[in-house]
Give the backbone structure.
Amino acid sequence: MAFESISGVRINDQNANRAFVFADYFSVYEDLQNVEEIPMVFNWGDFTAIAETKNEFVLDNGVRVFNIPKSLIDDPVTLIRVRAIVEGAIAANPGIDYKFGKRILPPKNLCIGYEVPVDAYIAIGAYRENEINNSNVVLKYSGFDKLIWIFSPIVAIAAFVLQMLFFGSFAGESEGVNSNLLQILVISLFAGLAVGMSIYLFCIYGAKTLYGKILREDPAVLEEITFVVCEEGFMAAESEVYDLSSIIRWQQVAYFVETTHVYIIFTGNKAVFWLPKRLFPKELHKELGDFIEGKLLQKS
């Protein structure tokens, strides 16, 4: 099982007088004052749905729902350990319906247990806001560029037709239209450019907020990360919980995109792996890019 070496985590809820233990099993103590209490113990496979929201973990076994507020977890490392235990358990029980918020790191439920070989590409470091946001600008623009090329000419033509209807020969005022034609064409052109620029600025604004949105939901983005690319697969995980014994297989993803700063791997239309180039020596960049290209289709 992926991430099975992580030690268990106990979370006390003093207000509700109970405690939760995340480990090989999920356990619930319903009376903190009773030192001899025998907890309720659940196999992870007992749960039908698990979700991590901005404020809590929600575990549903079809009979009971357990809500564990994140406010009970007093530091990011403990939160990271809880998440790794949960996602490792989900990897072993893929029938669990799992939902989570915005992430840069890949969800660990995609992982399999695998000892990373010594010849793997391995780097350790933290993400930077500029490389995430700048790369997201590239991704957003590549998704909206067709809209720009479609709507800009349409708006320019529409502006031209409207002006001709009101001021030009279409309105029956052919006299003097030649002298105004250049002005009408310029206004039409600028109308099309204004729409194209508006779409582009909208893309930039949306892209530049990505890091901030993730940071509000996921403290792991500030942690030291271990990155791995090898023959069988890849991984990016918090160094605190990652012992190079889990990967995501190449067969589980679809394609990659290369930007100036990072390699980004996708499952469908969702990015699951951001690999900063700066963590590797420059002389390795082409070799690493060629290696990834040998495993996945590259999209521009």
